[in-house]
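Quiz preparation item.
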């Protein structure tokens, strides 16, 4: 009888812990930010270093916008189509200097200052990149770009004299082949590169120095865009899948999931940004009837 009671107690504690864990991530709607025209679409989001501003990339709009995260007011914008008529916005990332990076489908990579004034344009065609879907900048200034077609996988570059150079010690002369449809990346708490394969159920972890690849998480709904918080938790949106959001801990274990319906996403969950404390999430609703933008959640 004692053993039976102990087993029951263990099960009860486990259930209470699970409920507490999910409850800790209960999300409350807190408004919407964005002004993409109905029928147009948004894809990719990132916060400024002080978390006062939210950057959103536009696909059909061929733009990047900067919004006041508190008021929702648009305070700056840039037309990617003015830089190249074929530049569709696919993702956005803010580096340690507050610079904003955005890949365009030309294929090019754009670097802006915090107010979206152009700093540099990098041509990705000489490297065989065809369709850049994501970009992040590591602590040492190295640039990581994902390519969903052509040389599918991730590339690492150093920036010298305004030009990109392959990081030869990373993978095969700067390139690591993985997945079949890789999208926006994130940087893990330990500095590793995380990237999801939207055509599968896997998130890969890539060593930022050598390019060695391991599986961070699997058996997920198609992982699309990723973001991380200071504790190492990983936030994943799944685009058109029934599951809208998955939150993983730093070891790749699922903490909780939310459906698109739970989140009020009426089109596709096409991007995510999260504050360092993990308490505010900005999840992109790509093209709802009232125009694309970020649905804001707090916990």
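Solution:
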């Amino acid at each position: 009888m004692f053993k039976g009671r102990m087993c029951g107690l263990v099960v009860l504690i486990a259930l209470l812990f699970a409920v507490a864990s999910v409850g800790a991530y209960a999300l409350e709607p807190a408004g919407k930010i964005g002004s993409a025209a109905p029928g147009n679409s948004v894809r990719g989001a990132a916060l400024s270093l002080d978390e006062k501003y939210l950057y959103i990339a536009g696909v059909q709009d061929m733009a990047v916008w900067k919004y006041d995260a508190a008021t929702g007011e648009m305070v700056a914008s840039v037309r990617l189509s003015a830089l190249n008529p074929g530049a569709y916005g696919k993702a956005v990332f803010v580096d340690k200097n507050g610079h904003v990076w955005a890949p365009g489908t030309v294929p090019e990579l754009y670097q802006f200052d915090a107010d979206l004034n152009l700093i540099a344009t990098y041509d990705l065609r000489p490297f065989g990149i065809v369709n850049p879907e994501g970009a992040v900048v590591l602590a040492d200034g190295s640039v990581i770009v994902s390519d969903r077609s052509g040389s599918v996988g991730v590339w690492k570059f150093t920036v010298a004299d305004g030009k990109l150079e392959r990081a030869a010690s990373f993978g095969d002369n700067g390139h690591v082949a993985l997945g079949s449809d890789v999208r926006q990346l994130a940087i893990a708490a330990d500095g590793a590169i995380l990237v999801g394969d939207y055509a599968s159920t896997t998130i890969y972890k890539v060593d930022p120095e050598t390019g060695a690849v391991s599986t961070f998480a699997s058996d997920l709904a198609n992982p699309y865009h990723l973001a991380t918080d200071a504790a190492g938790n990983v936030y994943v949106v799944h685009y058109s899948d029934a599951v809208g959001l998955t939150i993983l801990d730093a070891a790749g274990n699922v903490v909780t999931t939310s459906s698109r319906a739970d989140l009020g996403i009426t089109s596709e969950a096409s991007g995510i940004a999260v504050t360092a404390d993990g308490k505010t999430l900005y999840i992109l609703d790509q093209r709802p009837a009232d125009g694309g933008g970020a649905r804001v959640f707090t916990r």
